[in-house]
Write a structure and sequence with these properties.
single chain, mainly alpha, Fumarate Reductase Cytochrome B subunit, 8 helices, about 65% helix, binds protoporphyrin IX containing FE, electron transfer activity
Length: about 210
């Protein structure tokens, strides 16, 4: 067994899932205090993932996500297992990162036109707030479609004999071709906690107070 996913990548994935589900429900139900607080925690999580993508384990590196079209096509055709995200899966990861950043960024500039507005709305023009609101509404549907494709792809890999979920849960892979350079995920959790506290003490203070 070879360690291929560090503790942060494994935790990041499931915290991301829980965070997005919470944001979807609270957004649709208009539970804005919880929506904002969860939004700031997800912002801290995503920022940590990007930082970890620069300094973290080899399989967490952002540079490992970029591949030539040829490598992507051959990864789709092949059923060989891969250490880390394969070139095709890497494209999905990049799409997720962009969609999540767009959702977070547009949220920070949007308003429900009644009680609350994102912390950046006051600094931008009214037109931009309107556009951010439209993007926040439309992008969520694209994100949902991407999640559906992601889950179908995971099931298809399972049918081809690769249990990617087990590898993501345990962090370990059987018959890995190489042993990637790993780093302790604890460092990343430390960064995540610091960013979360900073965001909750500033932008998050008001919604958090109303919740407590
Ligand atoms: C809200 C729903 C989900 C989102 C937004 C999401 C997003 C992501 C992202 C961004 C990654 C890349 C991880 C990284 O490098 O940081 C990933 C990987 C992965 N996800 Fe999800 N995911 C979701 C749900 C699920 C579910 C329900 C499953 C299980 C059925 C799953 C299984 C996996 C697996 C196995 C990988 C690793 C793929 C590989 O080996 O290359 N995901 N997901
Ligand atoms: C990836 C993170 C996020 C997701 C998935 C998300 C999702 C949603 C959803 C599904 C809605 C309901 C939209 C609708 O009624 O059609 C919504 C509304 C809203 N979100 Fe977010 N959101 C996120 C982040 C944020 C952040 C960080 C903020 C601000 C700090 C924010 C502020 C708002 C506001 C003000 C509304 C109300 C818009 C309206 O009533 O027109 N969101 N969000």
């Amino acid at each position: 067994m070879t360690k291929v996913w560090d503790g942060f990548i494994r935790g990041f994935h499931w915290l991301l899932v829980v965070g997005l589900v919470t944001l979807y429900i609270t957004g649709e139900e208009g539970m804005m205090e919880l929506h904002f607080v969860t939004g700031y925690l997800l912002l801290a999580l995503m920022a940590t993932r990007l930082i970890w993508g620069l300094f973290g384990s080899q399989t967490a590196k952002l540079s490992a996500l970029f591949h030539s079209p040829k490598a992507i096509v051959s990864a789709i055709k092949s059923s060989k297992s891969h250490v880390g995200h394969n070139p095709a899966g890497s494209q999905m990861v990049l799409v997720f990162f962009v969609l999540i950043i767009v959702q977070l960024g547009s949220g920070l500039m949007t308003t429900d036109d009644i009680l609350v507005e994102g912390p950046l709305a006051q600094y931008v023009s009214y037109d931009l707030v309107e556009i951010a609101g439209d993007i926040h509404h439309i992008n969520i549907d694209i994100l949902l479609a991407a999640i559906a494709i992601h889950i179908v792809a995971i099931v298809m890999y399972r049918l081809k004999g690769q249990n990617l979920v087990k590898t993501l849960l345990t962090g370990k892979q059987e018959n890995a071709a190489v042993a990637p350079k790993m780093k302790s995920g604890i460092v990343a959790y430390f960064i995540f906690i610091i960013l979360s506290v900073l965001l909750l003490l500033t932008w998050g203070a008001e919604p958090l107070n109303s919740l407590l």
